[in-house]
Amino acid sequence: MPSELSQIAPAKLNLALHVRRRRDDGYHDLETLFCFLGHGDRLTVQAADALSFEIIGPFANELAVDEDNLVLRAARLLAKHAGCAGKAHIVLEKNLPIASGIGGGSADAAAALRLLNRLWGLDWSLERLAKLGLALGADVPVCVYSRYCEAQGVGDVITFSAPILPDNTPILLVNPKQAVSTPAIFKGWDGIDKGALPEARSLTALQQEMRNDLTPSAVAICPEIAGILDALGDTDAELVRMSGSGATCFAVYADRATRDAAQRFLEARFPDYWTLASHTLNYDF
Ligand code: C5P
C-alpha cells in the first residue's frame, strides 16, 4: 500500500444554474452545467497511527481545523461505511477562497474520498464514492468525478456530456474576498421558475439562453458581485457569469493573452480582490 498520496481538488464552475423549484425539504431542484478547472486546492494523505488533519496554504487561516470540516467528515464517513480503522494524516493546501461558489469544500471532501479509498486499499468505484459523498453536500458527487457534466435534482442526478468548452479554454476568476452563505442565497431566490436549460449545447446557447438564477439574491447580499460582473463585461470576454451561489464570478476568453489582459484590468480596478487565471480541464481520476 502507498504511504503517501497527493491529488488536486479541482475548482468547479457552474457554467449555468437554473433553479426550478423549492422543495419541501428546503433544498432546491436545479439544472446546472459543471466544468472543472486546472487549479484547485491540494490534498495529501499519509499512513498514520490515528486520524489527524492540518490546513496549510494561502487561505488556511480562513478555515478552522474542527470536526465540522468536510475533509474530516468525509474521512469518518468513508471509514464507517468501509468498516476500517480510518487512520491517516491529511494535509489540505487551501488555495481557493472559502464559501465562494467554486466548490472548495466539496472538492476537498471529494479528494479525501478518492485518496483515502486508495490509502486504505478499499478499491471502491468512483460511482460508489460519489453516492456516499452526497451525504456530505449536493456538489460532492460531481466533484468526485471532476468531469464536465450536467446535473439535476439537488445536483446529484449526473449526466456526462460533451463539453461546450474544450480543455484549456482560458478562464478568469474574480472574488471580492467575501464569504457568502449558500443557504442564505438560496433562501433569497424569488421562487419564480424561469425555465429549463435549453436543448442546444453551444457557446451561443450558453451566452443567450442560460443563466445563473442565484445572481440577484447573491448581489443583494454581496453588492460587490455586480461591480465584478460589470467590469468583466468591459473585457473581451465570450461569457461572463457568477458561479454557484457566488461570490466568485468568471469570464471565458478566446485566448490566454486576452484573459491575462483582462486579469490586469480587473486587478487595477479592484486591487484587494482575489483573481485567478485558469483554464478548463476534464480529469480522469
Ligand atoms: O448540500 P450543501 O451542503 O452543499 O448545500 C448547502 C446549502 O445550500 C443547503 O443547506 C441548502 O440551503 C442550499 N441548497 C439548496 N438546494 C440545492 C443545493 C443547496 O437549497 N440544490
| CA radius of gyration | 18 Å
Strand content: 25-35%
The kinds of small molecule bound in this structure are:
cytidine-5'-monophosphate
Q: What is the helix tally?
A: 9
**Main sheet?**
6 strands, mixed
N-to-C terminal Cα separation, in Å? 18 Å
Helix content: 25-40%
Low-confidence stretches: none
Arithmetic mean pLDDT: 97
Based on CA inertia axes, which overall geometry fits?
globular
Write down the secondary-structure element order: EEEHEHHHEEEHHHHEEHE
Helix-and-strand structural type: alpha+beta
Number of strands: 10
Structural features, described:
With 285 residues, this protein is α+β, with helices and mostly antiparallel strands. The chain is built from nine helices and ten strands. The chain has helices spanning 70-82, 104-119, 126-133, 140-145, 182-187, 203-209, 215-221, 224-233, 256-269; strands spanning 4-22, 28-46, 51-56, 88-93, 149-153, 157-160, 170-175, 239-242, 249-252, 274-279. Strands 1, 2, 3, 4, 5 and 6 form a six-stranded mixed beta sheet that branches. A four-stranded antiparallel beta sheet has the order 8-9-7-10, sandwiched between helices. A hairpin with a 3-residue loop joins strand 5 (149-153) and strand 6 (157-160). Helix 1 runs parallel beside helix 2 (104-119) and helix 2 (104-119) crosses helix 3 (126-133). It is globular and about 55 Å long. Bound molecules: cytidine-5'-monophosphate (C5P). Cytidine-5'-monophosphate (C5P) binds next to strand 2 and helix 5.
Quick overview of this protein structure:
The protein has 285 residues and is of the alpha+beta class.
